[in-house]
Amino acid sequence: MSDAPLICVRGEAVVEAEPEIARLSVHVQSQESDRRAALDRLTERNRQCLDLVESFGEAVEKVETGGLSIMPLLKYKRREGDIRGYRGTVWIKITVRDFPVLGELVARLGDLERTYVNGPDWELRPGSEVYERAARQATHEAVARARGYAEALGARLTGLVELSDEGVGRTPEVPVALAAAYGAGRGGVEEEPEPIDLEPETQIVRAAVEARFTATQPDLEPR
């Protein structure tokens, strides 16, 4: 086993970047006294919501159905049998890449009858170069720190023994939520709602590595 001195260091980096996508979670509901009527109304409102989202074209990157449910509503919590109606819910997940249209999309979704909007959740793409940039900066920091220790000892680095990645992740933030209350059906021609002003949330990515370097024998003679 080599008797060369080892210098063990930790390198860290913090990178701030603009978000690349925004995610919306939309719940569309219906409630009727008849199960089939609840399902039909839910189908209608779901189609209306999807048509609205599709009208934004390529600004919307992805639309997914997260789930659908039709459930009976009981008159009495502790007794089976007496059903006062049925409630249907569709969960739609929307990924938006064109932020200038986001405020309009949120406002128009929230204006739909019995629709609940949550978001936006600002994110980087999973393969974003920001994560790689943070990892590189953390590695450079580790090398610079190890070299500084070596120079302080009158030595120099001679090789790398190990480099371990502690992971790269986005700093958790308090979720930003916009809740649009259930709308009621309105007659007549309505103007489109005013777009909501939304400012993208800065993404903070942290990276850390641990590294072990070999070094020449230090010069410990007093100077």
Can you put this structure into words, describing what you see?
With 223 residues, this protein is an alpha+beta fold. It contains 3 helices and 7 strands; from the N terminus they run ββαββαβαββ. The strands form 2 sheets. A 4-stranded antiparallel sheet has the order 3-4-2-5. Strand 3 and strand 4 form a beta hairpin. The two termini are 32 Å apart. Mean pLDDT is 88; it is low at 174-189.
Total DSSP helices: 3
Shape: elongated
Q: Strand-residue fraction? A: 35-45%
In total, how many beta strands? 7
The stretches of 5 or more residues where confidence is low (pLDDT under 50) are 174-189
Question: Taking strands numbered 1, 2, ... along the chain, how are they ordered across the largest sheet?
Answer: 3-4-2-5
Radius of gyration: 28 Å
Q: Percent of residues in helical segments?
A: 10-25%
- Distance from N terminus to C terminus (CA atoms, Å) equals 32 Å
- The arrangement of helices and strands along the chain is EEHEEHEHEE
Q: Give the class from helix and strand content and strand pairing.
A: alpha+beta
Mean pLDDT: 88
Query: Biggest sheet: strands, sense, closure?
Result: 4 strands, antiparallel
Write a short abstract of this structure.
With 223 residues, this protein is an alpha+beta fold. The chain is built from three helices and seven strands. Helix content is 24%, strand content 40%.
Feature tags:
40% strand; 24% helix; 7 strands; alpha+beta; 3-stranded antiparallel β-sheet; 223 residues; 4-stranded antiparallel β-sheet
